[in-house]
Amino acid sequence: MGSNNLVGVLERLEALAQQFGLGRPRPSADGATSMQQTLGSNKTKRAAVLICLFQGPNGDLRVILTKRASTLSSHSGEVSLPGGKREEGDADDVETALREAKEEIGLDPSLVSLVTVLEPFVNKIGVTVVPVIGILSDKKAFSPNPNPAEVEAIFDAPLEMFLKDENRRAEEREWMGDKYLLHYFDYEAENEKYVIWALTAGILIRAASLVFQRPPAFLERRPKFWNRAINSNTTSP
């Protein structure tokens, strides 16, 4: 990120949010958000993840990631963003993402400055996943406290790596006749090797493209099912 500081990043992200018509969903008169009205409010098939960014010691912009516990019934041992399914008491997707981050890694919501909510992704089983971008201004104030029932490890990685062709590989897959690329990013932190792939990788590619205002240095070719919840005229970079 060079000489850019977090204030500059926040201003740029806010400008991008306005440019792409994004932002925190605002409640309507009946209490439903505009995004919920567009996508439907089936909470049993809705989830949110937190893309929590902070400035690393070298001035780069980094994102907090987790390795899921090996005891979980689904996606065990995989790398993911903090987050999970929406609960009945959650006011909106932002609250879901922040609540889950607190439950999973002990991140106090008061430490996170909300930037924007990205367009949702839909996984193969039809769950709508809403990425929420936030800034952790004071990394030292965050004392990671992983929930052992859900999280095996907490680590961070440079956001910009998801735009680079280094340490990346891809596999061609097919869904209902549509061929797409599944991206894998290899990363090592504190002598542990991690593989960031599938939906998590796709969300981070999208976030990095918005933050750094440039496309990835590789062919992306997203699966069409990711966009099932997005209006066909939504602008993508």
Secondary-structure blueprint:
Layout lengths: L5 H14 L14 H6 L6 E10 L5 E8 L10 E2 L2 E3 L7 H13 L6 E6 L3 E2 L5 E9 L14 E8 L9 E8 L2 E12 L2 E6 H15 L25
Parallel strand pairs: 1-7
Antiparallel strand pairs: 1-2, 1-4, 2-3, 2-8, 5-7, 6-7, 9-10, 10-11
Describe the structure.
The chain has a domain of 155 residues: Nucleoside Triphosphate Pyrophosphohydrolase, CATH 3.90.79.10. The protein is built from 4 helices and 11 strands. Strands 1, 2, 3, 4, 5, 6, 7 and 8 form an 8-stranded mixed beta sheet that branches. Strands 9-10-11 form a 3-stranded antiparallel beta sheet. The longest helix is centred in the C-terminal third of the chain and has 15 residues. The chain is of the alpha+beta class and 237 residues long.
In summary, what is this structure?
This protein is an alpha+beta fold and 237 residues long. 20% of the residues lie in helices and 31% in strands.
Instruction: Examine the coordinates and then state which fold CATH places here, giving the name of the CATH topology of the domain at 6-160.
Output: Nucleoside Triphosphate Pyrophosphohydrolase
Could you tell me the mean pLDDT? 82
What is the SS-derived class? alpha+beta
Shape: globular
CATH class of the domain at 6-160: Alpha Beta
The counted number of beta strands is 11
Instruction: Give the topology string: H per helix, E per strand.
Output: HHEEEEHEEEEEEEH
Roughly what percent helix? Answer: 10-25%
CATH architecture type of the domain at 6-160: Alpha-Beta Complex
Major sheet characteristics: 8 strands, mixed
Beta-strand residue fraction: 25-35%
* Straight-line distance between termini: 20 Å
**Low-confidence stretches at least 5 residues in length (pLDDT < 50)?**
20-43, 231-237
Q: What is the rounded Rg?
A: 17 Å
CATH superfamily of the domain at 6-160: Nucleoside Triphosphate Pyrophosphohydrolase
**What is the number of helical segments per DSSP (H or I, 4+ residues)?**
4
